[in-house]
Fold this sequence. Notes:
This is Methyltransferase. It holds the Pfam family Methyltransf_19. It comes from Amycolatopsis vancoresmycina DSM 44592. The chain is of the alpha/beta class. The longest helix has 21 residues. The protein is built from ten helices and eight strands. The mean pLDDT is 92. Strands 1, 2, 3, 4, 5, 6, 7 and 8 form an eight-stranded mixed β-sheet that branches. Helix 1 packs across helix 2 and helix 3 runs parallel beside helix 4. It has a single domain, classed as Rossmann fold (3-Layer(aba) Sandwich). The protein starts with 18 loop residues before the first helix and ends with a strand.
Amino acid sequence: MTTQDPEAPEGVDLDRPNAARIYDWFLGGDANWAIDRQFGEQAVKTFPMIKTVARAGRDFLGRGVRYLARNGIDQFLDLGSGVPTVGNVHEVATAVNPDARCVYVDNEPVAVAHSQILLEQEGVADRHAVLQGDLRDPADIWKRALDTGVLDPNRPIGLIIVGVLYFLGKDEPVAQTIQKYLSLLPSGSFFLSSHLTSDGLHEMADADSRERIMNQYNQSSTPLHLRTRAEFTSFFEGLELVEPGIVYLPEWHPEEIESKATKKLANDPSFVGHLCGLGRKP
Ligand SMILES: C[S@@+](CC[C@H](N)C(=O)[O-])C[C@H]1O[C@@H](n2cnc3c(N)ncnc32)[C@H](O)[C@@H]1O
């Protein structure tokens, strides 16, 4: 754990903990501040498996990107990409296809600044870019993503929104936003996503702890909103779902699971509380 705080990029709200930085702390990164670590430590006390669950989310992202890269997708638009950490999309994709391309988007300045540093160090500006933006504005994001010159809008793209949509409030038009992105993507593109679900929550033995975590997030700058399986499934409307469909994270291509965190959860997949899926635009 970092004991000294890094210098904060411009625009960073250090008065309240933030999802990108808390998640970075859960994953063992150092792009977090005292306020985020206090939040994280409290969350671990309330729900000791939270770091394992966060890692299982990150692992799903890796499995999904690897699947897509192996199936010919060589360009990615990663929305709510987070602070760079183990298994960034461009790294996973490049390991399969050295020509893979990626545009990252996040609304948190820390995530964007750290991504910029990483991409500058790697020095492949024609294949990777990062933008600060709000995914709720597809027209703006799409225009700016294409302006980077990294993506070819005439060839299939892997649209990734993993571990993000539960930060959009229950009154947000999430399904319409996704449909807008899908309408812009060419045929043969994919949508990879995951979401915290409210299904079965109240029957869980540790329902109280989960409720307390939710309340804790609701005090941060990034409140959480759980959705049902039916709501999450509706985000894939018009797409062909890739096997095994909408499932809990450890159930998605379990043969590809490498991480101890996800393996730990494999005996009780619903414990993770996250559904996931991959759909193809016909
Ligand atoms: C839990 S992290 C997930 C990071 C990464 N996608 C992963 O799965 O490892 C959620 C990220 O979504 C970002 N985010 C939340 N709401 C957003 C929005 N409206 N537009 C863009 N990014 C957003 C947060 O800043 C944070 O970096």
